[in-house]
Amino acid sequence: MSDHRSGVVRIEPGAGVVAEAHGERAGDLQHLVDMGLTCPVSVALSVERLHGIATGQRFDAAGVINEFGPDPLVSVLPSSGRRSWGGPREFPDVGLNEATHALLAARFGQEHADRRWFDFILRYATDVACLDAEPFDEAAAGSDPAGAALEIYLREAGEAFPQDPGRQLSQVVSSMATAWGGITARLLRHAQGAPLEAGLALLVQDNRWSVAPGEIATGRVRMFDPVTGQTRLNGSLRALTETGAPAPAEDIPTALQDRAPERVEALSALLDTARRGFRADREIDVAYEGGRFLVLDASPQASSARVALNNAMALVEADVITREEALLRVAPPSLTAFLHPQVQPDPARKPLFSGVAASPGGATGHVVFTADAAAARAAREEPCILVRRETNPEDIRGMHVAQAIVTERGGMTSHAAVIARGLGVPCITGASGVVISAETETMTLGDGRVLHEGDLITVDGTHGEAHMGEILMTPADDDPGFLEFMSWADAARDIGVRANADTPQDAALAMSFLADGIGLCRTEHMFFEPSRMVVMREMIFAGTEADRRAALDQLLPMQRSDFRELFATMAGLPVCIRLFDPPLHEFLPMDREGRMNLAQSLDLSLTEVNRRIEAISEFNPMLGMRGVRLGLMHPEIYEMQVRAIFEAAIEAGRAVGATVEPEIMIPLVAGRSEVKLVKTRIDSVAAQVRVATGQEVAYRLGVLVETPRAALCAGEIAEYAQLLSFGTNDLTQMTYGLSRDDVSRFMKAYVEQGALTGDPFEKLDFKGVGELIRIAADRGRATNPSIDLSICGEHGGDIDTIDFCRTGGFTYVSCSPYRVPIARLSAAQLAI
Ligand code: PEP
Ligand code: MG
Question: What pTM value is reported for the model?
């Protein structure tokens, strides 16, 4: 701190160690000093002068206060004003006493002077002398608040209010240091990631500009548009009239451009200096006096994703930062603001209930309890929120038309969560303390309140909270800068980002988010729409192979046309199609009505439907007849699918004039033999198609590694596969032995007890599940060094998973389409 007329003070928190200043303004204050932009009557307090303040020594500030000349009035600015950090607030008007009060009154009128005098006494009494605020409240209501406050001070503090500005400053600085160094404040900060011994910086600054009349004006200016983030000089200046009342604020540059263009120019130059010095844009508080601007403060703007993104791009344009730095300045999760509307935050608002933030975005609508009710509302163009105990494929059409989805059960990887993320619909799963009954059409909350059909609620899927009634929404930002920014991210990243896309519509979405391909097409999801569901169930319920083949004959053309569209939409980008993996419970009709419908559509009696459901129901459907087990027990199912894939690839290839080489992935494998058997059958279908069409059919074989055994046997499996894709949803479920559909019931309490650090379905467990993946990757590579590796479970879009995959040399990650931009930016940040 060479210049003693301006500077940042570092307070030593104890033990003789000088800590760095911390807080959101610390760097800014230091920069202002470094750039020579601080107002020249800010005062430096050297570290030596403040030595020991936090440990209780008194601070003689007389010398400091003298530097402000006669009748000083100063503000003390802390480097961190964040209350959540236990930081002291800015302390204005230090130096006010009987004499300065009289001066203020003479210049600005009695009322103005009295108000400030009272405010200062009150603040000093409570924050410095630690007096109770209550008696002062009564004084405020009286005829002479300041006089009464002085009397209360004398009575309560046992001494007269200090008149000496030096003593006031000394005490104020001490109290700010003490507030900062208290145990509660330290723990508060520590909980938010600050070092336990974080230091405080203070700037003592002349306060004259906030009070001086006439020629002096103060205001706030910036170089960026506060809504779009683009470069635009704006702000306002406000002078004080001779009576001390503020004159109307003058807009910059509009009001000044013609009258005083040189001031606009000076402000531009000043902001440009600050921009280059900070290597960022700041909101700058200025004072204008005697033909020049002085800087009082510079603070970062709490900004939206749009402002952050465009401002970072503007700084690149102005040659202040590089593209890489710009990419690092936008938090990947904040990109959801470009993709979904968001509920406007209000910390005071208490949620109706909360749960797992399963799919981001906000929506308001009327509560409905069934897919039919959702469809009926949609037909009347009324927004609705589909509320279910849990969802299954029967709910899909309701989920398509609902504005948001809430389920009582489930977690991050349950049916509702996966589908909602795919649709881009806000969703809360595992709503805590909530009991949902479709029978009585009620939703009973933890506190006993009951919601009924038609009640209006707002779902905040970004934060996993629901609120009563309609809440103001910030619309999704439609910003042209977004695409360009994302192209920078693509140039920087070194790992692929594909999308999990099940239908041609999903594929179109994946393309619009510039995914590098499809990493997982869950083929059974193509049958979630009602007319197709009937055929799918016919297939599942078929009692004989002949019946099953009849159903499969109907499914074949549907699959072929979907696959053809997928290939065509993806225009040559890789498409990884997973063969059927329908956990049966997702496809069985749950209630009587669903079973009746099924009986009608299959032309069976209800008794027969019930009997068949009984026959195929499983105690543990997630560990049952699904995935490759279904494929091996009923080979005709995979044969139909593989045929559809090959025929579609040939047709799409003809249309685009290039060879389409599909990736075919086998789910729920436990070892090499299953893969070998399925591969033999795929090859045989390939030969049949080749003979029938005269066309060569090439494909790449993928194995979904989602059982612990498959991970351990990856070396053998890799003999047959060109791709190992880790299904981290099932792999987590099976490694922990923890049901992915029921986990929310106790996960929160379990984490609170410290039994787990977090929900492993939300954040990949790198220690256990990650170890299995590492082992599998090593063993797979040892057999087949060119094998592609990827993750396609719901963890795929998370930055820590991407980091893990990059480190392991994986080819790509795959996530739901709406998470693709977030994953692209995360990947870029990791590569920089
Ligand atoms: C997985 O288990 O991670 C996976 C991708 O498959 P699904 O979520 O469909 O079971
Ligand atoms: Mg799975």
Answer: 0.79
